[in-house]
Design brief:
Elements lengths: L2 E5 L2 E3 L5 E8 L7 E7 L6 E6 L5 E3 L7 E6 L4 E6 L8 E8 L7 E2 L3 E5 L2
Parallel strand pairs: 2-11
Antiparallel strand pairs: 1-3, 3-8, 4-5, 4-9, 5-6, 7-8, 9-10, 9-11
Length: about 120
């Protein structure tokens, strides 16, 4: 079956770094936009970053200059390097694969990121 599995979350201090990974299986996502979303307690899920099939990237204003999204086609994976983490970055982070067409969209189960001293 097709799956997206996130890993790399955890507890870090403000100013610290984490690298999230999203491992895809079941199909290739070379023609999909791959993105990261997050959801904090009591809040709606929000967009964080996206990388297109051509490598173009776009970030939410709240993470620009701190987060970097990348993908590895050979490994069928997408990553989110998070630097200078802030308490407001605390959330469950979800991996997303979007074909931007008449095909199914996929979501991972999420990985918890907690930024606290």
């Amino acid at each position: 079956q097709v799956q997206l599995v996130e890993s790399g979350g955890g507890l870090v201090q403000p100013g610290g770094s984490l690298r999230l990974s999203c491992a895809a299986s079941g199909r290739t996502f070379s023609n999909y936009a791959m993105g990261w979303f997050r959801q904090a307690p009591g809040k709606e899920r929000e967009f964080v970053a996206v990388i297109g099939w051509n490598g173009n990237t776009f970030y939410a204003d709240s993470v620009k200059g701190r987060f970097t999204i990348s993908r590895d086609g050979a490994k069928n994976a997408v990553y989110l390097q998070m630097n200078s983490l802030k308490p407001e970055d605390t959330a469950v982070y979800y991996c997303n694969a979007d074909p931007h067409g008449p095909w199914v969209e996929y979501w991972g189960q999420g990985t918890q990121v907690t930024v606290s001293s």
